[in-house]
Design brief:
Elements: E1 2-3, H1 14-20, E2 46-53, H2 60-66, H3 71-85, E3 95-102, E4 111-120, E5 123-129, E6 135-141, E7 144-154, H4 159-166, H5 170-180, E8 195-205, E9 210-222, E10 227-233, E11 241-243, E12 285-288, E13 294-296, E14 301-308, E15 314-319, E16 324-331, E17 333-334, E18 343-344, E19 349-352, E20 363-370, E21 373-375, H6 392-409, H7 438-443
Parallel strand pairs: 1-6
Antiparallel strand pairs: 2-3, 3-4, 4-5, 5-6, 7-8, 8-9, 9-10, 10-11, 12-20, 13-19, 14-15, 14-18, 15-16, 16-20, 17-19, 20-21
Zinc ion binds at residues 282, 284, 286, 365.
Length: 445
């Protein structure tokens, strides 16, 4: 077992295989796929690379038989690989990289110089041929370390989908949207085409393979009149959370957008809805979203009404303090366990978007009451949970400064850093000059 060094190592290339296989390879060249061979006499001896996929019911031995590797050889290779993998089974779809050689004495039975499989980014199993025709088995372990990358995108549809399209993991976008929901009005402050940047911490092996697609460190969203920034931070002795660059917790006593904001798209709107903003007549604000979108309790409180309520349709009212209440109208149904008298936590699902009562399309009509009087929820200042203070302040400010700079200059998460599950199949190595022969790829099916 070789522990790869902590410095980013160069990618494993064909050259490494030739090192591993102590054959006399001088004078031999990698065969470029485009070499015209139709009429020309094949070269006396030739080395080439293949990438094959394990299919359902397949074994490595069967795969080698399919590409005409001699029986004694493939048995030896399969045995060596088994000893390396121990009890581990290779998954269907796993890619097997092969370095092959055709030899003049037996043109129909190519030789395997090296076989490599990497079921986990940090572990590679290699079987390579010795000069005397025996095979060696080797396990390579790559060191995993964190790396900060950025993903930039433009809002097109929902913020979550735009992020995924730009290359950010879905979980990171959900965290970003949740962190913004206390402060951002996703209905009125967002427009098509607005730019956002997220900083992600990926885990990367010493040879550049990503083992974790990225945890959200910080995010920046350009709004119409301002830019919202959230920064992940763990105060000393405290819980991890998101903060704005001033060191204030993003968590407020009330959500600005009391619903699953990832479902709000700039394209989705109510046709013919007369009033979207707050007015004395309308007494609330509306959030248009598809039917069934979860509606969240804007703050912690108690359910004081849950039932049909005239033009409001299915309606929920929450009492938060003696003074403050919120109300939610036109629901399609209630959240689990929601009935008068029960307590709810901030962010709990109290119902789902619908179009019951006097409504022209699926939307949430949201009201905020202070001392029994309707006020505009969008202009309320809500209490924050806390700020980063004391000894933490300097540490936080340094981190915030670093992240704000990295929004501009961190390496962009590129094609090579996409999460493994989004990798197109069959896999093609980004760096090694591998040109599998199409006919032989087809054989592995
Ligand atoms: Zn309304």
């Amino acid at each position: 077992m070789i522990l790869a060094d902590s410095q980013p190592a160069p990618p494993v290339t064909a050259a490494d295989y030739t090192k591993a296989a102590p054959l006399d390879l001088r004078g031999f060249q990698m065969k470029p796929a485009e070499t015209p061979t139709a009429d020309a006499e094949p070269p006396a001896s030739d080395i080439y690379e293949l990438t094959l996929r394990l299919e359902k019911g397949d074994t490595v031995e069967k795969m080698l038989a399919d590409i005409d590797v001699a029986e004694a050889e493939r048995k030896q290779i399969a045995e060596k690989l088994r000893s390396l993998l121990k009890k581990r089974k290779l998954a269907v779809g796993e890619t097997i990289d092969l370095t092959m050689q055709t030899i003049p004495e037996q043109p129909d039975a190519p030789r395997v110089l090296a076989l490599s499989v990497r079921p986990q980014p940090e572990r590679e199993y290699i079987v390579s041929r010795n000069e005397d025709g025996t095979y060696d088995a080797e396990e390579k372990v790559y060191k995993v370390s964190p790396r900060i990358v950025r993903v930039e995108g433009e809002r097109d549809g929902s913020l979550q989908q735009s992020g995924i399209k730009a290359g950010a993991p879905s979980a990171a976008m959900v965290e970003f949207i949740r962190a913004l929901s206390y402060d951002v009005d996703f209905q009125r402050e967002l427009k098509q085409g607005q730019k956002f940047t997220v900083l992600l911490e990926q885990l990367v092996t010493s040879d550049g393979k990503v083992t974790h697609p990225g945890r959200l460190l910080a995010g920046e969203l350009r709004l119409m009149k301002r830019t919202a920034v959230v920064i992940r931070y763990r105060p000393q002795g405290g819980a991890e959370g998101f903060f704005n660059p001033q060191g204030e917790s993003v968590v407020r006593s009330f959500l600005r957008t009391p619903m699953d904001a990832s479902r709000i798209t700039s394209r989705f709107g109510m046709r013919e809805h007369p009033i979207l903003g707050f007015s004395a007549l309308h007494a609330g604000v509306d959030f248009a979203a598809p039917s069934g979108t979860p509606i969240l309790a804007a703050g912690t409180g108690k359910v004081v009404a849950a039932g049909p309520n005239g033009g409001y349709g299915l309606y929920v009212k929450l009492q938060h303090t003696q003074d403050v209440a919120t109300a939610y109208a036109h629901l399609s149904r209630f959240g689990p366990g929601i009935k008068p008298g029960v307590s709810v936590r901030q962010g709990q699902v109290i119902g789902f978007v619908g179009s019951t009562g006097m409504s022209t399309g699926p939307h949430l009509h949201y009201e905020f009451l202070k001392g029994g009087k309707h006020v505009n929820p969008l202009t309320q200042k809500f209490a924050m949970r806390g700020t980063v203070g004391g000894k933490d302040a300097a540490r936080f400010q340094a981190l915030a400064k670093q992240y704000l700079a990295q929004f501009r200059n961190a390496p962009v998460a590129g094609e090579a850093e996409k999460p493994a599950e989004s990798k197109p199949a069959p896999k093609k190595s980004a760096q090694a000059p591998k040109e599998p022969a199409p006919s032989q790829i087809a054989k592995s099916n």
